[in-house]
Specification:
The complex is a heterodimer.
Chain A: E1 10-21, E2 24-35, E3 39-43, H1 50-58, E4 65-70, E5 73-77, E6 80-81, E7 89-92, H2 104-109, H3 117-130, H4 146-158, E8 164-168, H5 176-193, E9 196-201, H6 204-210, E10 213-218, E11 221-226, H7 228-233, H8 238-243, E12 248-255, E13 258-261, E14 264-267, E15 274-280, E16 285-301, E17 306-312, E18 315-321, E19 331-336, E20 341-345
Parallel strand pairs in A: 3-9, 3-10, 7-8, 8-9
Antiparallel strand pairs in A: 1-2, 1-4, 4-5, 5-6, 10-11, 12-13, 12-15, 13-14, 15-20, 16-17, 16-19, 17-18
Chain B: H1 2-19, H2 27-61, E1 62-63, H3 67-73, H4 82-92, H5 98-106, H6 118-143, H7 146-154, H8 159-188, H9 191-195, H10 201-210, H11 215-246, E2 258-259, H12 262-291, H13 298-330, H14 334-345, H15 348-365, H16 372-400, H17 405-413, H18 418-429, H19 431-447, H20 450-455, H21 463-472, H22 476-503
Helix pairs in contact in B: 1-11, 1-14, 1-15, 1-16, 2-3, 2-6, 2-8, 4-6, 4-12, 4-22, 6-8, 6-12, 7-8, 8-11, 10-11, 11-14, 11-15, 12-22, 13-14, 13-16, 13-19, 13-21, 14-16, 15-16, 16-19, 17-18, 19-22, 21-22
Chain lengths: 349, 510
């Protein structure tokens, strides 16, 4: 698989997008940029406004304020915009939205109206070939599996050679064991097309594995943007940390630039003295001979590891233990891995 | 725009009834006609509810010889206009008719009933309109998932208790909807009740217009009808809401079917067979047998048949086009469709009168304009469209609801404008629904009488109109031919529709 090109000037930029439905603020001052040939994942829990943001970029929703610009051309402005059909932005829907009255090939050819008829067919066939569905062109959508439908939808969107491609929850309709496979083939097809891609998803694992650039969204706001690894290791807030996977949030007390928790201390150079909260990933709690003694309250087998519930002075946490499982009721010596822990100011609440 | 089509005549009624000079007909008459209408409506409601539900329950929940044919054949009486049934039965059971003379001579007794009474009219209208209840109840039972019944069983109900306590209450909204439709048609009927000399509000509307030439009186007769229409519409909508909830069940399995054997199977078979016989086969057969001897006035008949076909086709085309525009636009303005459907509940006679009011305004403002043959036809088709808009809207809406919003948006993101998306995605997907809507309107226009009577251009006869003319002149033998022709033209369309309904399943095309 080819790698992503280095970032250049953004292909699409959104500034200060706001969208409210009545009282409910769906998107609050969102800034977003997409870079040529790179895959950007927009990650957030359901209802955080990420789909609304995607639909504003597609032209299916009109922002209340803010602007969207693509290569010097204004696409959206407050209460107005270029209609979706004239944006040159492709969109793959969560439910794929294949037209049930057309075959797979006709679906792919749908958007090629400006090409001569014979040419249209050839191009649609070629697109189906690139998603490895060349032989299924005559099939009706309801005869295709979920993964095949998604590939047809992808081929249909890519057939028009869009400048930018948007994918709405591409993994949501798939079985867990299919996700990895679909992600790989999807990434490959997108790289091959050289498309600039925005993927909206609530699946942290898939987002981390797929993204060149990661954008985290929470409660209508974009809270962090950057490389997946940086976001994972250095979250800006407990909310951002939680979006990317399981976390332990431990109450802490800061003295002299160190946040002290029941499980050990973490550097907190820029926090004032007083209460704080420390975020530790489950894999950031490690066994160490000189660590704090923690009581094992529950052990569950989780596949490649055991999930172990711990308790120290009534403070609960959980960790992943590879290899042999500890016994329930046993005491384990535990330490915090400073790479996987961060201290944050305590919630004002 | 399309919604205005339906609403304009309703406004006309209100304006005429409230502002006109004193009535030519005393209020006491209106009350008397209203009472007749009400009694008739109650009788028809009870009879259609029982017969239609029983038939649907038998056909959906049981297996017996002939069940698959009955499933759609039970709806066939929709092809027979109520007036045709009335002619046949009135003739068959006429006091001076062959049957009674023969009975008196041979058996020495007389049949203890008379067709030209309110119960007689209720009987005729029940024959003509029970399929509305049957179809609604059938759909309700077919759409019910076995899951609810199984849950009831798991909670300790016997099959019978489960049916009574779960299946029937779940179908109650459909019953209300079906009965509301039957009552709407009852109130709107003109041909049958007029022929049987039963004075209802609808005959009152037509009489006020033709005999007294008073638009105000006609509108005053129409006003209670309009109120009843709104009430029925509300009942019908309420029923529909319940049905929508039902189809939301995720996992659907058909209701368990009971195999009927021996006497029970025989009884079920006989019940369905006699229902069809009494409502369709006997009256239509009698019309055919009794009147085949009469040589019809062929040129007039053919001319009228041509007119009927033309009106039905043109009316269906215009109505479907307007309804489609309304359905596509209604996504943005949901209340429009609801207003337009008031037209469906409005009797044709009322619609026609309502239309005369704005038309009179146009004539006054621009004498000479909007007159003559063409204008009359346009008014007539307009009346059909206003009255039948909702009937067309319903299947079209159902058809369009298969098109998810994301499909339309996909078409937009693939370079189609709103019109292009509708043309390439929405309309092709709703093709079957458009045809269904067209046929529903086609059949209804073929059978329509009062609005046609009031609005048709001079000397422009349809089959229903000449049947009515002959019947009013007591030349019943001649009336049989056009009535029969209406049935013959409508029958293939009805068969096509009902077969389609019979095979439909949740999630399948309507």
């Amino acid at each position: 698989m080819t790698t992503a090109p280095a970032p250049q000037a953004p292909v699409l930029e959104a500034h200060g997008l706001v969208k409210a439905y009545g009282e409910r603020q769906a998107v609050i001052h969102a800034d977003l940029s997409l870079h040529r040939g790179r895959i950007t994942c927009l990650l957030g829990p359901s209802g955080c406004g990420k789909s609304t943001l995607l639909r504003m970029i597609a032209g299916l929703e009109v922002p209340d304020s803010g602007e969207i610009e693509a290569q010097g051309r204004r696409l959206s402005w407050p209460h107005g915009g270029v209609p979706p059909e004239n944006r040159g932005i492709g969109l793959v829907f969560q439910d794929y939205a294949l037209f049930p009255h057309m075959t797979a090939l006709q679906n792919v050819a749908f958007g090629l109206g400006d090409l001569p008829r014979a040419h249209r067919r050839t191009r649609a066939q070629a697109m189906l070939d690139t998603v490895q569905l060349g032989a299924r062109g005559g099939a009706w959508p309801n005869a295709l599996s979920g993964g095949e439908q998604q590939r047809v939808a992808l081929a249909r969107a890519l057939a028009r050679r869009p400048e930018i491609l948007l994918l709405d929850e591409p993994f949501s309709g798939l079985d867990a064991h299919l996700k990895g496979e679909v992600r790989l083939s999807l990434t490959e097809a997108l790289r091959a097309a050289g498309a600039t891609v925005l993927v909206v998803t609530h699946d942290a694992r898939e987002a981390l594995l797929m993204a060149d650039d990661l954008v985290l969204m929470h409660a209508g706001r974009i809270i962090q943007a950057g490389a997946p690894r940086a976001c994972y290791l250095d979250p800006v807030s407990p909310d951002a940390a939680r979006l990317l996977g399981e976390v332990n949030l431990l109450p802490a007390q800061v003295t002299a630039g160190m946040a002290q928790t029941a499980y050990g201390a973490v550097a907190a150079a820029d926090l004032p003295t007083g209460p704080a909260v420390v975020m530790v990933r489950p894999e950031g709690l490690i066994r160490a001979d000189r660590g704090v003694l923690a009581q094992v309250s529950q052990v569950r087998f989780g596949g490649g590891y055991h999930e172990v519930q711990l308790r120290v002075n009534g403070v609960r946490a959980h960790m992943h233990v590879a290899g042999e499982a500890p016994a329930e009721g046993q005491d384990l010596a535990i330490q915090i891995d400073p790479e996987l822990a961060r201290a944050f100011p305590a919630d004002p609440s | 725009m399309a919604a205005v089509v339906a609403i304009l005549p309703l406004g006309g009624i209100l304006a005429a009834a409230l502002t006109g000079e004193t009535a030519a007909i005393p209020a006491r008459d209106i009350a008397r006609y209203g009472a007749t209408s009400a009694v008739l409506a109650v009788m028809v409601a009870l009879a259609t509810a029982v017969l239609g539900s029983l038939a649907a329950w038998l056909v959906v929940m049981h297996r017996f010889p002939g069940r698959d044919v009955f499933a759609w054949a039970l709806a066939l009486p929709l092809a027979a206009p109520a007036f045709a049934v009335a002619y046949a039965y009135a003739d068959l059971f006429d006091v001076a008719g062959d049957l009674r003379i023969w009975l008196r001579a041979v058996a020495g007794f007389d049949l203890p009933f008379e067709m030209r009474t309110i119960p007689g009219a209720a009987f005729i209208l029940t024959c003509a309109f029970y399929p509305y209840v049957y179809l609604a109840m059938r759909a309700a039972f077919v759409n019910q998932s076995a899951q609810a019944l199984e849950a009831a069983r798991a909670l300790g109900c016997t099959p019978r208790q489960a049916f009574l306590r779960v299946a029937i209450p779940l179908a109650r909204p459909a019953l209300a909807a079906g009965v509301a439709l039957a009552v709407m048609e009852t109130l709107a009927d003109y041909g049958a009740v007029k022929f049987l000399s039963v004075q209802t509000l609808t005959t009152g509307v037509v009489r006020a217009w033709f005999v007294f030439g008073s638009l105000t009186s006609a509108a005053q007769f129409a006003l209670p009808l309009l109120g009843a229409a709104a009430l029925l519409l509300w009942i019908e909508r309420w029923g529909r809401g319940g049905r929508g909830y039902e189809s939301a069940t995720a996992r659907w399995r058909p209701l368990p079917v009971t195999e009927l054997k021996g006497a029970a199977a025989m009884a079920a078979h006989l019940f369905c067979l006699s229902l069809i016989t009494v409502s369709l086969l006997l009256p239509v057969g009698w019309l055919a047998v009794a009147f085949l001897g009469v040589t019809p006035d062929w040129p007039r008949l053919i001319q009228a048949a041509g007119n009927s076909l033309f009106l039905a086709t043109a009316g269906a085309g215009v109505t479907v086009a307007l309804a489609t525009a309304l359905a596509l636009g209604a996504v943005r303005v949901p209340n429009l469709a609801r207003l337009a459907s008031l037209g469906y509940a409005t009797p044709g006679a009322v619609m026609a009168i309502g239309l005369l009011v704005p038309a009179a305004l146009v004539w006054r403002l621009a004498p000479g304009a909007a007159q003559g043959f063409g204008a009359g036809l346009i008014m007539l088709i307009y009346a059909y469209a206003a009255r039948l808009m909702a009937a067309a809207l319903e299947p079209i809406d159902a058809g369009l609801s298969k098109v998810t919003p994301s499909m339309v948006q996909a078409a937009r993101s693939l370079g189609k404008g709103p019109v292009g998306a509708a043309w390439r995605v929405q309309l092709p997907m709703a093709r079957g629904a458009l045809l269904t809507a067209g046929l529903v309107v086609f059949i209804d226009i073929l059978k329509e009488l009062p609005a046609t009577l009031i609005l048709r251009p001079f000397n422009f006869d349809t089959l229903a109109v000449i049947a009515d003319n002959y019947a009013q002149d007591e030349r019943l033998a001649n009336a049989g031919w056009p009535a029969l022709l209406v049935v013959l033209i409508a029958l293939p369309a009805v068969i096509w529709l009902t077969r389609k309904i019979a095979v439909s399943r949740p999630g399948a095309a309507p």
